[in-house]
Structures are given as structure tokens and as C-alpha cells.
Amino acid sequence: MDGTIHIYCYIYVGGKLVQQKDGLWEYIGGRTKGIHVYKGMSYAEFTSRIMEKFAISLELAKMHYILKFNPKVIQDLEDSDDLDNVISYSDNFAEVYIVESSCLEGVEENMPNTQVTNKAYH
Fold first, then answer.
1. By C-alpha distance, which of 72, 93, 74 is closest to 82?
2. Measured between alpha carbons, how far is 91 from 36 in angstroms, rounded to an integer?
3. Are 111 and 26 in contact (CB under 8 A)?
4. Which of these, 73, 98, 122, lies nearest to 9 by C-alpha position?
5. pLDDT value at 92 more than 60
6. In what order do the strands lie in the sheet with 16-19?
């Protein structure tokens, strides 16, 4: 073994993220597949593997993730630093949510995560 951290990453595509009344996030609808990711993987390789696996474009979509120590805060996955957080702060698996701008419920562009997590939805 080379000592590199490898984890399984569930990729959710085609659904929507909804914040529940308890503040936790739920992904509704869509498809789920998985890929193996590793510490040091580039963001370009990560997105390329997703686009190939799902046969999709990420032009009109945003990627998000949640870390286990605060599941009420959803974070944008936009670069290699974010991907490193996903891998470093997950145990054996991670979850990445890909949503189109029109399928965001509770994730508003340019809204700080603290405002998003405190917003109630019915």
C-alpha cells in the first residue's frame, strides 16, 4: 500500500437538495453512482471522472458536500482544496451532490452557509 488515503465517494446527480426542519440535508430524486477518490486527486480529474461516469456536463450544475462533524452545513465543492476537505474529513466514504441551479432548495447562490443552515423550509 502506498499510504495514500482512498475512499469511496457516492455521487448524486439529477435530484435536488432540500433542508429538513431539523436542519439536516436530504437529496431527493436523481441517480447515484460511486467512484474511488484519493488524497491528492486533482479537481480536474475528479470532475472528468464524474462527467464520464454519468455522461453529463457540469456547466449548469454546482457540486456540494457535507462533512460528518456538521451535517447541517452544506459546502460548495469548487476546487482542489474543497476536494481535499471531502477526502480528508470523511472516514470510509463521502457524498457529493450535483444539482442544477434550478433544483436548489435551501442553497442560494452567494448566501453564507450560516444563513442557509438556519433557513426553514416547508
1. 74
2. 13
3. no
4. 98
5. yes
6. 25-28, 16-19, 104-105
Cα-based distances in Å from 85 to 10, 41, 80, 91: 15, 12, 9, 12
Beta strand 31-38 with 6-13: parallel, antiparallel or unpaired?
antiparallel
The partner residues of 61 in beta bridges, in order of sequence, read 100
Count how many residues are written for the chain. Answer: 122
pLDDT beyond 70 at 27? yes
The closest alpha carbon to 93, from 44, 16, 48, 37, belongs to 37
Q: Which amino acid is at 98?
A: I
N-term to C-term CA, the chain: 48
Encode pLDDT of 42-74 as tens digits: 999 999 999 999 988 888 889 999 988 888 999
How would DSSP label each residue in 14-44?
SSEEEE-TTS-EEEESSEEEEEEEETT--HH
pLDDT of 109 > 80? The answer is no
How many whole angstroms separate alpha carbon 33 and alpha carbon 9?
8
